[in-house]
Design a protein that fits this description.
The protein is an alpha/beta fold. The chain contains eleven helices and 18 strands. Helix content is 29%, strand content 21%.
């Protein structure tokens, strides 16, 4: 036989017994309190329904609020709201989804573009911009840029300063200053940027491939090089290619038909045998390997012309600027050239992201034309090209 406890004294004893029992079973205190509140709520609901006809609107709830559940705190808030006839619903705050699921990493404010923070003026239409993304453009990285020693007005070692000077270093220094970057020009072998040794296919130089430098300067892009490296926007016009012979062309070299002719190339230049093979309108443009010679420099090529080891030299025309003892026998030949002088870098490099916008500002400015005119003023004692034949917009 089961009995229902009705007296208050026995109710308290029964409640104490039940509370002790559930505690021994491992239930937390809040579980007992919550169950007790639910039972009391049902009793009150039954009473309210029984007395519904005699109640007024004052017994009705004034609304509902939803609060996050925090053990020990939410129950107290619930009791306070209940005194004011406000219903309370609780929702979990720390869920597995909230703790474990993060589909995207949070982006730091300083890494976002545009304005970081801005304060408006109440009495005017002005505003104060405290920080923008430009404030973070300057980094601590030193950008290493290769620059070879060529002994002409693009690059040369100054006898006075002992430093690398010339048109290209002037461009690099100006662009890095505009971009607010810390750049260092280093002098090293050209072959560490692009290798074109006799008997081997042209390929990326070990230095640039291995990350010794962030970029190699003074290189012109073509289809062959673009298969390996990325190029910045050009800061000079694209020069044409040329065949050269001794003055007067004593062996009557016909550049339109070079079948059986022996041709010399300069390693590292854009005018190699692969470039010549792409030229249109030339019979025998694909030179067999037994007819290819690679000169170590201008002087060796000139000696080969004199002793008739070769019939002609092929390269881009800028290599022949200011040189004596030779004669160009072609008329603005275009072979494999894609662009003018640029910076050559690995495809995973971020250099072009800041270099190209800064270079565009330089070329549009008066400073670019001053650098071009400085080819004659400051670097005129070195052989090489004229600014009118090389600079953009002159």
């Amino acid at each position: 036989m089961h009995s229902i406890v009705t007296e208050d004294e026995y109710k308290k004893k029964e409640e104490s017994r039940i509370k002790k029992a559930v505690t021994n079973c491992g239930y937390p205190k809040w579980a007992f309190d919550k169950a007790k509140q639910q039972v009391e709520g049902k009793v009150e609901l039954v009473k309210s329904k029984g007395d519904q006809k005699n109640t007024t609107h004052e017994t009705e709830t004034k609304g509902m609020v939803v609060i996050p559940y925090v053990e020990g705190l939410s129950e107290k808030l619930q009791r306070i709201f209940r005194k004011h006839k406000i219903s309370v619903a609780m929702k979990p705050y720390f869920t597995l989804k909230r703790l474990l699921v993060h589909p995207k990493d949070k982006v730091d404010t300083i890494k976002t573009s545009g304005v970081v923070y801005e304060i408006g003026c109440k009495g005017c239409d002005k505003s104060y911009i405290g920080l923008t993304s430009a404030d973070y453009d300057k980094d601590d990285k030193v950008w290493i840029i290769h620059g070879g020693h060529a002994r002409f007005n693009q690059y040369y070692i100054s006898e006075k300063t002992g430093k690398l000077e010339g048109f290209v270093p002037d461009i690099i220094n100006a662009v890095c200053r505009i971009a607010n970057k810390n750049c260092k020009i280093v002098v090293d072998l050209w072959s560490n940027c692009w290798s074109n040794e006799e008997g081997d296919a042209s390929q990326g130089g070990h230095g640039l491939m291995a990350g010794w430098y962030d970029a190699c300067s003074g290189w012109r892009s073509n289809t062959e090089r673009r298969r390996t490296f990325a190029f910045s926007d050009q800061f000079t016009i694209s020069p044409h290619h040329a065949f050269v012979t001794l003055p007067g062309n004593p062996r009557n070299f016909d550049w339109r038909n070079i079948t059986g002719k022996t041709i010399a190339f300069y390693p590292g230049t854009i005018g190699n045998e692969d470039c010549l093979a792409q030229a249109k309108g030339i019979i025998g443009a694909v030179v067999p390997i037994e007819n290819i010679r690679r000169a170590s420099g201008y002087d060796q090529g000139l000696e080969w012309l004199k002793d008739e080891t070769i019939d002609a030299i092929f390269s881009d025309a800028t290599w022949f600027r200011g040189k004596t003892g030779i004669e160009e026998v072609t008329d603005h030949l275009q072979a494999c050239q894609v662009g003018g002088t640029s910076l050559m870098s690995r495809y995973d490099s971020k250099l072009n992201d800041w270099w190209n916008p800064a270079q565009a500002k330089l070329i549009a400015s008066k400073e670019y034309h001053e650098i071009c005119q400085d080819i004659k003023v400051s670097h005129g004692h070195q052989p090489g090209f004229d600014p009118e034949d090389f600079c953009i917009g002159l």
